[in-house]
C-alpha cells in the first residue's frame, strides 16, 4: 500500500521522531511511503486531488538513520502523486508551530477531508481534528478525568482562580504544544502573576489549571490506538517524563527525561474514561499525558516519543500500528464505502 505522511516540513523532522519511526517501519514492511507538507496539495480543474510528494527509495535500509538520510538527500525529489492512489494519509503535523504562517495550520485538515471523500483512509479523522485544533477539545472529556480548568483572557478571573487554589496553578496558552509558554504559579512566584498573564495573553486565551501534586514525579505519556492503550504482550507504549530540576515542563525536548513506567489500574481507568470520545471522533493514534488520576493533555495531532517507549519496553510499538493500518485498508476493500472515514479510522 501507499502511505502518505503529512508533516509541517522536513527541516523540523528528525530520525527519532515518531513519524520517522512509522515511515521506516512501513517501508521495511514493503509499503511505499511519501511525505507531504502544507505546500504540496493541488486541486485540479477537473476536481481531482493531486500533490507533490517526496518518495524515498523503496528498499531495505540498514536502520532508521539511513532511511532518514535518504529522505533528506537530494535524490529524494518532489514527484507528482494522485491522492486517490494513496491508501492511507496520516496527518502528523503540529498546527501550533505554524502560527507564523496561519494559512498552513489547517491545510492537513482541509485537504484531508477532500482525500477522505476520494476514498483515502485519513488518520486521524480530519473532521474531528478540525474540532481539536486547540486545547478547548480537552474540555469535552469527562470532568472526572480532568484537572479543574479555567479558560479566559480576563485577568481578574485568573487571579480569583489562583486565590481559590492557594496560588498553586499552572498557566499555559490555549493554543500551543511542546511545553511552550507554560508557567507554574506558587507562593514564591505570585508576585509575577501579572507578567505571566501578559506573556501568555498576548497570543490568545489562557488556560489556568489546578496543579496536581503528583506532577512532582513527572507525567506519563501513554499511547492509545483505536481508543485503547497500545500494548504488546502486556508491555504498554508508555513512559514517564520527568522535568529537570529547574523546569516544570516534562516535555522531552524541553529538557525532560524519559523513564520506564508501569501502567496500572489508575492509568487504565483514565484511558477508559476518555475512550468513548476518542472512538466516536475517529482518533486512531493518540498520546495522552497523565498525572495521578488526571489527564493534562490529549495529543491527537502528532503524539511523540513512540521510539523511546519502544526502547524502554524492549519491543517495537510501530509494528502493531502498521498492522492496524494494513487491516483498515483490507476492511475498506472488503466493505466498499460501507464505513465513513471516522468509523474506519478506529476499526
TrEMBL record:
This protein's pathway: Sulfur metabolism; glutathione biosynthesis; glutathione from L-cysteine and L-glutamate: step 2/2
Domain of life: Bacteria
Enzyme class (EC, first level): ligase
Catalytic activity: gamma-L-glutamyl-L-cysteine + glycine + ATP = glutathione + ADP + phosphate + H(+)
Any one Gene Ontology molecular-function term assigned to this protein's record: metal ion binding
Keyword ATP-binding included in the entry's annotation: yes
A GO cellular-component term linked to this record: cytoplasm
EC number(s) reported in the record: 6.3.2.3
Pfam families, A to Z: GSH-S_ATP, GSH-S_N
Cofactor requirement: Mn(2+); Mg(2+)
Sorted UniProt keywords: ATP-binding, Glutathione biosynthesis, Ligase, Magnesium, Manganese, Metal-binding, Nucleotide-binding
Family in the record: Belongs to the prokaryotic GSH synthase family.
Name of the featured protein: Glutathione synthetase
Gene name for this UniProt entry: gshB
Amino acid at each position: 500500500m501507499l502511505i502518505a505522511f503529512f508533516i509541517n516540513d522536513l527541516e523540523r523532522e528528525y530520525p527519532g521522531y515518531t513519524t520517522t519511526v512509522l515511515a521506516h517501519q512501513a517501508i521495511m514492511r514493503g509499503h511505499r511511503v511519501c511525505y507531504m507538507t502544507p505546500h504540496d496539495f493541488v486541486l485540479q480543474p477537473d476536481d481531482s486531488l493531486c500533490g507533490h510528494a517526496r518518495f524515498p527509495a523503496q528498499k531495505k535500509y540498514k536502520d532508521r538513520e539511513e532511511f532518514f538520510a535518504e529522505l533528506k538527500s537530494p535524490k529524494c525529489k518532489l514527484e507528482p502523486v494522485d491522492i486517490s492512489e494513496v491508501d492511507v494519509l496520516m496527518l502528523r503535523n503540529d498546527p501550533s508551530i505554524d502560527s507564523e504562517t496561519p494559512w498552513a495550520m489547517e491545510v492537513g485538515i482541509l485537504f484531508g477531508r477532500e482525500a477522505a471523500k476520494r476514498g483515502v483512509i485519513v488518520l486521524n479523522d480530519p473532521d474531528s481534528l478540525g474540532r481539536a485544533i486547540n486545547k478547548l477539545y480537552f474540555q469535552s472529556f469527562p470532568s472526572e478525568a480532568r484537572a479543574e480548568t479555567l479558560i479566559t483572557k480576563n485577568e481578574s478571573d485568573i487571579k480569583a482562580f489562583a486565590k481559590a487554589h492557594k496560588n498553586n496553578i499552572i498557566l499555559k496558552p490555549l493554543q500551543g504544544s511542546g511545553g511552550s509558554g507554560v508557567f507554574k504559579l506558587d507562593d514564591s512566584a505570585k508576585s509575577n502573576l501579572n507578567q505571566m498573564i501578559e506573556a501568555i495573553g498576548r497570543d490568545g486565551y489562557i488556560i489556568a489549571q489546578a496543579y496536581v501534586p503528583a506532577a512532582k514525579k513527572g507525567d506519563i505519556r501513554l499511547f492509545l490506538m483505536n481508543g485503547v492503550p497500545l500494548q504488546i504482550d502486556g508491555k504498554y507504549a508508555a513512559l514517564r517524563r520527568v522535568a529537570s530540576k529547574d523546569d516544570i515542563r516534562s516535555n522531552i525536548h524541553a529538557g525532560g527525561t524519559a523513564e520506564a513506567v508501569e501502567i496500572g489500574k489508575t492509568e487504565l481507568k483514565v484511558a477508559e474514561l476518555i475512550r468513548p470520545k476518542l472512538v466516536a471522533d475517529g482518533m486512531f493514534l493518540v498520546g495522552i499525558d497523565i498525572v495521578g488520576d488526571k489527564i493534562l493533555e490529549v495529543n491527537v495531532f502528532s503524539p511523540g516519543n513512540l521510539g523511546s517507549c519502544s526502547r524502554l519496553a524492549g519491543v517495537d510499538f510501530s509494528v502493531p500500528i502498521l498492522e492496524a493500518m494494513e487491516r483498515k485498508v483490507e476492511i475498506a476493500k472488503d466493505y466498499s464505502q460501507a464505513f465513513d472515514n471516522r468509523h474506519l479510522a478506529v476499526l
